[in-house]
Structure formats: C-alpha cells, structure tokens
Design goal:
11 helices; TIM Barrel; eight-stranded parallel beta barrel; 222 residues; TAL/FSA; alpha/beta; globular; binds erythose-4-phosphate; EC 2.2.1.2; schiff base
Length: 222
C-alpha cells in the first residue's frame, strides 16, 4: 500500500515526509497552474530531491509523439525518481500508448494518466506503464462506480501477472482513500488537506484530551 501526495506544495511535502506514510508525489498541469508555478522544471527538481527515493510524477502536455517524448526526456534529467505522466489518449481520441512504449524502452518510468476505464488501465499496463492512474472522482462524474472499476482492474492486473501499479487519483472525499485501498488500489494519491482529514477524528481528539487531562496536563500549555 502506497500513499502519494497530489500536490506541488513543497511545504506540505516537507511537513508530511517525516511521518513516514508518504511514498511519493504526483503533479499535473492543473495543480502547477493553480499554484502559479512559472518554472515547472525548478519545482519538479526540488520535489524530486526532497522525495527521493520516492517517485515524483510530472506530466507531459504535447500534441505529437516527438514533442511528448522530448518533454519527457527533458524532465527525466531532473532526477532518477522522475516518472513521466502520459495521458492515456489524446484530446482527439488517438491513443498515446506509442509514447509510453518509446519511453519505457529507453528506461523511463511512465505513469499513464487520465484512465477512466478498465480498457485504458489494461492497455497502459500492456504498454509497460509503471503506474496506471485511474481517476476516481471523474469515473463517478460520468455515473460510473469507481469502486467496481478499481476492483476489476486490480483483479485483472493480478490475473495476467501485469506488474503495473494501480494508482488512484482524483480523490475528493477522505472516505474514498480507504474505499480505493479496500477495492485493491496499490497507490492512492491524495491532496494534503484530504490526507489530514483522513487521519483526524473528533472522538480521538476528545480521547487524547481526556488522557492528557488525567495525566495532569493543562490544556493548551504546549
Ligand atoms: C493525479 O495523478 C491526478 O492528476 C489528479 O488526482 C486529478 O484530479 P482531478 O480529477 O481532481 O483533477
């Protein structure tokens, strides 16, 4: 079981790493845009150094095979633990599996992203992706059952001995982290605020308050 942080926020990464539950980081162009990142290479290099030996995924956004491969090879120079996210298909519906096979043959680890179906996960696995990113919230947006797709994908990857790790992204509620792991996800990538919420519990707080008070501690002294 692995947990990744879905973020470009270096402070959040630094805050979570010492707790020993974060195994890697995923980014995407939307997260970079929302964070106002102008120089993606700089932040990706910093993340790679900070998170090593854990993987850091960074996404290519070209239109052609050549463009995406060049971008990927450029990002790869930023760290051995950089994994290249390649959207499983292009906006016009053509598959990007050729980009994945070109990269994997050159020893570049691939994270096939924007997978919304079982077919896309299996195709990405056949193309040699290290991770297949199945987007939980977006499957649900379309009326699908993310739990069922995750369970089927996990079963089929195992059944055919495919080494691709099933990575669940687009997690929007804390409970979905546990649901995805229970359904068979190898990795769940989570925004930092949601990870905090996943671990918190109001009754645990009250319980610890009681323990501390019984231990003679005054509240709010530290
Ligand atoms: C992670 O790898 C994905 O890019 C991300 O979780 C997508 O989340 P969204 O569907 O909320 O944009």
């Amino acid at each position: 079981m692995k947990i990744f942080l879905d973020t470009t926020d270096m402070e959040a990464v630094a805050q979570w790493l010492p707790h020993g539950i974060v195994d890697g980081v995923t980014t995407n162009p939307t997260l970079l845009r929302k964070a106002g990142v102008r120089n993606a290479r700089e932040i990706v290099r910093e993340l790679a150094q900070r998170v090593a030996p854990g993987d850091v995924s960074v996404q290519v956004a070209g239109e052609t095979h050549e463009e995406m491969v060049q971008q990927a090879l450029g990002y790869r120079t930023l760290g051995e633990n950089i994994v290249i996210k390649v959207p499983v298909i292009r906006p016009d519906g053509r598959p990007n599996l050729d980009v994945m096979t070109t990269l994997t043959r050159q020893g570049v680890a691939v994270n096939a992203t924007a997978c919304l179906s079982l077919a896309q996960v299996l195709a990405a696995a056949k193309a040699g992706a290290r991770y297949a990113s199945l987007l939980w919230g977006r499957v649900a947006d379309e009326g699908g059952s993310p739990e069922a797709v995750v369970a089927d994908a996990a079963r089929l990857l195992r059944q055919y001995g495919l080494p691709t790790q099933l990575l669940i992204g687009s997690v929007r509620a804390a409970g979905d982290i546990t649901k995805a792991l229970s359904a068979g996800a190898d990795v769940v990538t989570v925004p930092p605020a949601l990870l905090e919420r996943w671990l918190d519990h109001h009754y645990s707080r009250m319980t610890v308050q009681q323990f501390n008070s019984d231990a003679g501690m005054k509240m709010g002294t530290k």
